[in-house]
Amino acid sequence: ITSKLPSVKTTIFTSIGQLAKKYNAINLSQGFPNFNPDFVLLDKVTKAMQNGYNQYAPMAGDINLRETISHKIQTLYNQNYNPETEITITAGATQAIFTAITAFVSLGDEVIVIKPAYDSYEPSIIANGGIPVHVSLSAKTYKIDWDVFKSKITSKTKMVIINTPHNPTGTILTKEDMQSLEKILFNTNIIVLSDEVYEHIIFDNEIHQSVARFNNLANRSIICSSFGKTFHITGWKIGYCVGPKELMNEFRKTHQFNVFSTHHPSQIALTSYLQNEETYNSLPTFYQKKRDFFVKELEGSKFKILPCKGTYFQLLDYSNITQEQDVSFAERLIKEHKIASIPISVFNENNRDDKVLRFCFAKTEDILLKASEILNKL
Ligand code: PMP
Ligand code: GLN
């Protein structure tokens, strides 16, 4: 057979995860919490099941959940999304991203992808006949050069994908970044796919610059978010996307034949859980404490600690320890030191090696402590 995705291998999350298991390593690679979600939320799902919400949800999702999301976005980002026509509940952000790309990208369309990038964007573009066009963030500082970004736009550019807070670097886009994007896209028909799955995991009193805050971006954007990140339930695979009616209408044409609808009892549970704003407003403090704990424990180590403004990933620069390629160093750390991380080169353009590894700190302090003890010895 002719592969549609000839250069795609098993994802780094699977391959590193398997290696971590084999060597019984502390696993700070794939991003997921090692602690339970709030039992209040779990009780709500059980009750939803007992109360009979065990059949298909409406195609776009439970209307009460969509109304609650609309209210949240209005309150946080001052943008109005009509729950009937402009919000869809998805099976996590991965499905939302694939569905959005499938809905809008056709053969020969160019899509601007900022590298390093979350690994699902590119195969989704290529599977739909699109052409990824890369813009690389500067090594180790991970900033966008908007002049370079602008120079990549052509008459074939159909979509640009942005991600803030950013996986894997932990950087965030500023208001000035968003204004630059807004200006560059003005008078074009380019669609923005804005991956905001870490919207509530942001530190140091920074403000999440959702595209929803910027009218001239919101009117051309599909925004994806994920309850997996926000409520420590990555295994539930539930999230949502929002966008103006014309875009959402096209999105749903694909969504309905992709999954049709998603897990119904969790939607009922999340509706009432989300009404308590504290459930998501507490996240910056919660995760900042973990970031600060991990970073403090590493202060005496040979690693250079790169700034982390959001997400639950800490980048560590190991260039004072070895000049080894990041993939081989990450493998050696698993096999010889029993600690797993993600090498950044796998997300970079041409596998640029920044000598940087990504560590997930969505873990209990005992695990972060054990991890730092290992890392401090290197
Ligand atoms: N985008 C980014 C940047 C992510 O880090 C993730 C989760 N790893 C996703 C999308 C996918 O989210 P979900 O688990 O809801 O599919
Ligand atoms: N978002 C997670 C991460 O970046 C991984 C999700 C996945 O395994 N696809 O670690």
TrEMBL record:
<dbReference type="InterPro" id="IPR015424">
    <property type="entry name" value="PyrdxlP-dep_Trfase"/>
</dbReference>
<dbReference type="InterPro" id="IPR004839">
    <property type="entry name" value="Aminotransferase_I/II_large"/>
</dbReference>
<dbReference type="GO" id="GO:0030170">
    <property type="term" value="F:pyridoxal phosphate binding"/>
</dbReference>
<feature type="domain" description="Aminotransferase class I/classII large">
    <location>
        <begin position="25"/>
        <end position="365"/>
    </location>
</feature>
<protein>
    <submittedName>
        <fullName>Methionine aminotransferase</fullName>
    </submittedName>
</protein>
<keyword id="KW-0663">Pyridoxal phosphate</keyword>
<dbReference type="InterPro" id="IPR051326">
    <property type="entry name" value="Kynurenine-oxoglutarate_AT"/>
</dbReference>
<keyword id="KW-0808">Transferase</keyword>
<dbReference type="InterPro" id="IPR015421">
    <property type="entry name" value="PyrdxlP-dep_Trfase_major"/>
</dbReference>
<keyword id="KW-0032">Aminotransferase</keyword>
<dbReference type="GO" id="GO:0016212">
    <property type="term" value="F:kynurenine-oxoglutarate transaminase activity"/>
</dbReference>
<comment type="similarity">
    <text>Belongs to the class-I pyridoxal-phosphate-dependent aminotransferase family.</text>
</comment>
<dbReference type="GO" id="GO:0005737">
    <property type="term" value="C:cytoplasm"/>
</dbReference>
<dbReference type="Pfam" id="PF00155">
    <property type="entry name" value="Aminotran_1_2"/>
</dbReference>
<dbReference type="InterPro" id="IPR015422">
    <property type="entry name" value="PyrdxlP-dep_Trfase_small"/>
</dbReference>
